[in-house]
Request: fold
Amino acid sequence: SHLVDIKQKDELGALARSFNTMVVKVRDSQLELESKIKNRTAELRKANENLEELNEKLKELDKLKTNFFTNVSHELRTPLALIMGPVEKLLSQKDLSKNEEKDLRIIQQNARILLKQVNNLLDLSKLEVGKMELEYSDLDLANLVRVIASYFEAMAIEKKITLKVSLPDTLPVQADADKIERVLINLLSNAFKFTPENGRIECGLSLDNSAVTFFVKDSGPGVKPEFQKEIFVKYKKADKGLIRHLGSTGLGLSIVKEFIELHKGSIRVKNNEKAGATFSFKIPVNAPAGTILHGRMIINETEIKDVVESYEILRRDNNNKKLIYNLKPSEKLLPIKGLPTILVIEDNHDMNSFICQTLSSSFNVISAYDGEDGYAKAVKNKPDLIITDIMMPRLSGDMVVSKIKANPDMETIPIIVLSAKSDEDLKIELLRQGVQDYLNKPFTIEELKARVNNIIKMKLVKDRLQSELKSHSEDLSTLVEELSERKNLIELSLLEKEVLLKEIHHRVKNNLQVISSLLNLQSNSINDPESFEIFRESQNRIKSMALIHEKLYKSKNLLQINLEEYINDLISNVYQSYFGGSNHLPLKLKVKDIFLSVDTAISIGLIINELISNALKHAFNDNEVPNGEIEVHLNNEVQNIYCLIVKDNGRGIPDNFNYKDPKTLGLRLVNSLVHQLDGE
Reply:
């Protein structure tokens, strides 16, 4: 970087001047390079800072999601218990008709399925925050597998499946018995889901030094190699590319993997040479050194039986003819000449049968239990209306819509989409494709019938006009497209949704719909006042749960919920239940500008639901209080302390009423919820 002192004017001087010029250029280039390096270093430092900040935000968001899962799961368990308890009480009565018992069994089974989903969600929350711990005990693994496999024998006979169990007489291990039990049931149920009739399933145990291996081998469709790792990932389900189409939340196998890894073991899947797949896991025979053992595990066969039944394997199998909600021979859906034909495509057998039975009095109804079967029946029968679910095995509802709209012979058939999946983008896309209506679950059967009737009337009018005005068919088609486009534009609503919550929401709403519909149907045939009140209270709690879910999944803010909007909707539902179309009692609501966390809002909503229902049921008599009125106030005049007042001008409360020890389930629930909120 030093310049040469030039004195000569000869060739040597010229060379020196060239050298100095080169030195200046090199120095300038060096300075420019140093400046670029400095700027780039600053940019990298800023990028790293932004990345660290983003990483912290992602961690906080992940924590919020986990807390949200946990809170919602806990809050669902209380209403579920208050549904299952009264149902079990009613089932114990000896004077139930066969139809009444059948409906109650369906409510009970769907409540158990919903409870299983809630428990899976709680397990997932514990696993994600690292709070899941193992309780090791001495366990005869061979005997446990033998007992669990015995409860699948009836399913094997029903589906004509050969079940082979290869076990030693005994195989003692040290493990968490409850979690290993759930792993075994999950893997066996998975095999039964995908093994066709006349297939084969084999399971067994083997001991290799200090480790034990369990395997279950089936003759089903197998799993493509590129998906053999994905099926163990949370929220990944066997759909859209995977051969084994699971109809679940995508949590089962991921939780199985987590349980096995907690035992310091491993799990894998591989395809068999001819057909099917083999799932296997390996765990150490002994617990880690220093582990405290909790005695010897005693197998609870009743509990195992209940868990196996909760997987509803037979009910979800598309080839199974033994439906829980079968129609009587006199109620078979035989076609009646002159009536419009409706095709119902719904993979949930209870829901499918219930919709078909409801619509069969006014229409010819055809049913299908998966998308491929539904499309084939649409091609064969050319129905006047198609009602389809979205999430189904083999071919999803949105793919059914695409195939129908792409078929020139069927593109004009109107379609109603039923979905518990809160996906606004999918809804908009389906409406753009020409779907006539999109109905979210849970829905009332009256609403479904009204929408069906309206669309069928429009379809018949359209067919009549097209028949009379053949020469103007192009103009009529343009008019119908314009009307459809206007209707689609009105229904467009752009809301961001959480992908992780969509699958859980779908299963919860599906089961809420089945329970709600059957409670509504069953209540019409109940004459006993006490039983009727139990049903009405259960109906209101179901509606409250459905409302809570709608508010949570449509809210952009997972941290807080607007109490004024939420309580307004909740009270409207209660009034609708008691008065029908109009509110017979004035209501004063003062809940301005109050936003609470989701778990607190859920509890307050359930409290208000019970107190309003109690007031409507006990406080008023038309002769005694002609100008009845109910007031609901919620304020926080003292910081972090909220005061809830539900007030009426009815008959009042008897002097001997003990509010600390009420006799009704509703007021007991109120006391329990207030206690959970640390209130009084």
